[in-house]
Amino acid sequence: MEGAITLKMEQRFVEASYVEHIESQSLAGMSYIKVFFQPEYSIDSAQSELTSLAYSIIRLLPPGVYPPSIYKFGVSSLPVGLLSVSSESLEAKDIRDLAYFTVRQQIATIPGISFGPPLGGKVRQITVFMDPQRMQARGISPSDVVKAINSQSAIIPAGNMKIGDLDYYVYSNSLIEVIDRINDIPIKVVNGTPIFVRDIGTAADSAAIQTSIVRVNGREATYIPITRQEGANTLEVTNGIRAKLPKLTEIPAGTTVKFIYDQSLYIRQAIANLQKEGLLGAALAGLMIFLFLRSMKAALVVGLAIPLSLTAALVALYLTGQSVNIMTLGGLALVIGSLLDNNIVVQENLHRHLEMGKDGRSAAQDCATELTLPILVATICILIVYLPIMFFTGIIKYLFVPLALTVAFAMLASYVVSMSVTPTLLARFYQKGHGGNGTNDSSASTGWFRYVLALYIPLLRASLRLKPVVIGLALLALIGTAVLLVPRMHTEFFPRIDAGNFTMNITAPEGSRIEKTTAIVAQIEQLVQKIIPKDDLEEVISNTGLYFGDAARFAPNTGNHTAFVLVNLVTGHKGQTDEYIARLRTKLRDELPGVEVAFQTGGIISDVLNFGLRTPIDIQVKGPTLDIIRSVAEEIQQKVIDQYRGPAQYPHHRLPHAPAADFLAHHDRRERLDHGAPEHALRRTPDGDVQRLLRFRGRAAWATCAPSGCGNLVVQDRPGFR
Known about the structure:
The chain is an alpha+beta fold. 43% of the residues lie in helices and 18% in strands. The protein starts with a helix and ends in a 12-residue tail after the last strand.
């Protein structure tokens, strides 16, 4: 893979425009190549260019290589959820067929949805189980069986037949529709006697050897990774799926189709938090205005500032091509407190003019005139803090520029509202004046506020007399608080969030069979169910092994010895995700010492920030040969472990070092091709096919080779893992 496919593709991709660097990963039968471009280059143009380059090199790749698939990496390419299909009565291959042919077809009509092929289950295939001894006795080779089945089970157009006024389509029965009829296919005629498939083996409705096993809550199942099309709304996609599930048809009894691992829950929580913060901020500001100015009208005007400013900010975001996402919602939540400052200042100044005996119109005009420049300067000072964000580069640019724009739009909208809407409404409410007639209810000398003044005035005078003492105490309090809090503050690129789910990336000893890895995963699933209470645990999804094909891009596994487990907590879970992870890490270290488990939290946010990698810090070692790289990488890993003694997870994505069984024939035996004795490494069958004798651990088998070389070889124990 690395030399014949990956290297050639990399050499061609270097010809693309604005390439920043290229990374690749060669696995058994698959190759992943990541091409990073300069920020100024359009990703759509990059995809088109890579597609053209990839298909121009197909003819130079080895025979049998599938055409490459080119995808853009981003938020839209990450799953927003999983659609699991499980059954109490169906077999693994039937579950996958149900997910592939029935469920996928019905959810494809949801606007904005995108998905890949299902993961897990068994791929159905019709297999002819052949008896080598019976084949050898009749002089039949595997290629004879393949040729016979292909030639006698084909779609052959038969044409049409015109009789009278009608034109009839003529269908042939050359395509086998019943599996048992494969057994009746004649392979060849020997001495006048036909030899059928049933004479050398049996055809059966079976499945391909399973290379990926998916379990949902301990039961083998299949799931479909759900993504959204670029530009589609995540909430609309997930809402469409939940609305479509009850309407699915042709679902057998005892089969469950469920939408799990919903990443939109974090977005919904962010929107709910924004709504809560907005209402809380407006309520508290209105309460303070009512208590100190004792005016319900003024409190209502302040409450209008938040929705007006936020609406104006959203309109500005739409006009500039931004969307409502985690960062823009964070910007809105961040600026809510500042939106009220300008309006409160205007309110207080306008009431001061009213107490001077002015009517509402004059008070509003004088208030706006006095505060136009000071509030503008204050607003600009706040915006200057976010100005450096515009000069960011890389991924932080795409993360924080929308946040800065949101804050800027909201603050400018707040300034406009405070200078126009607030004075106008107050002038309308106080047309006849607000003070000067002896009935001023906002006078500081009446009401409950006089008690506040009785305490505040003596305290203020004492503070002014003891300025050095007050300043010293304030500085000591500030420094003491900083000293106590700074060591407890985390320093990370992005704040840690409790998304209500986490992922465990599992690495068993390299070369482990998929059955052995699945048994390890089952133990981990049981530990998860023991440590996390039932009230907090919603589902546990595991994926073991490497799925060959396009679906492999939705799983981080690199072989049969790797797996990942998704743990999803219920909405509103009581326990903290980090606490559960800490307990699991300790338990796994004690009970599974030879298994590496790395935890990943944060859901889709962490996936984007880590560029699709499993951990936020990824150390890559480059060199001329793997032997040199391995020793250097192990040395670096040991130094990291020695210098950092904390709850860290160390590299589990290591260099490939899996055991391999090499079946080789001595070249000096090639002259013996015409001999049929089994002790020779190569032989030729009566029909001219070349067979190679393969020996491993005392077992021998003949593999038929085409002129271009031997094909895929599968050596397997009897059914079941021991």
